[in-house]
Amino acid sequence: MDKVLILEGSPRRGGNTQMLVDAVARGILRGGGKVERLRVSELKIAPCVGCGGCDKTGHCVVKDDMTRLYEKIVLSRRLILASPIYFYSLTAQLKAAVDRGQALWNRKYLQVEKGLWQEDPDRKGYLVAVAATKGPRVFEGSILTAKYFFDATGFAYGGELLVRGIDRRGEMASAHEELTRAEEFGVQCLC
Known about the structure:
About 35% of the residues lie in helices and about 20% in strands. The protein is α/β, with parallel strands linked by helices and about 190 residues long.
């Protein structure tokens, strides 16, 4: 199995999202996979400027850490977006990377026009998210964003791991059922 690329959107080191991702990563390793984790808050990723520069080439004109991230995404068979929920959405750091996915959408579109694009239903993307509140709609915005990002970048949506009601710093460490569920989710991501 190829490695699973995990884009961690939390700006907080050692926070609840990171603990949940630790458990997902343990599951991936237990299932025989490999993991590459990138903390997007530690990368220099400017927001999309909407210039249209990628329309004809499929390559973004903004040169920053997203440039190397594009190729990691293109070469991935499994991709996980992981984020705490901020105002019913992904963090700004992760959302900047998602928005810059426009270049990959254009690259895909240009390949479709030339008859070069081949759908690969085995390429799958997943969402892992943690919310402080227990509201029934707290994840809707993030799920929709993740689904469209994955579709635009050539991934089938594989599903999500959503955890509600985890707020205090370090609280995830005592959420044993959720951590067990996260580890099983990691194993399932390989299927």
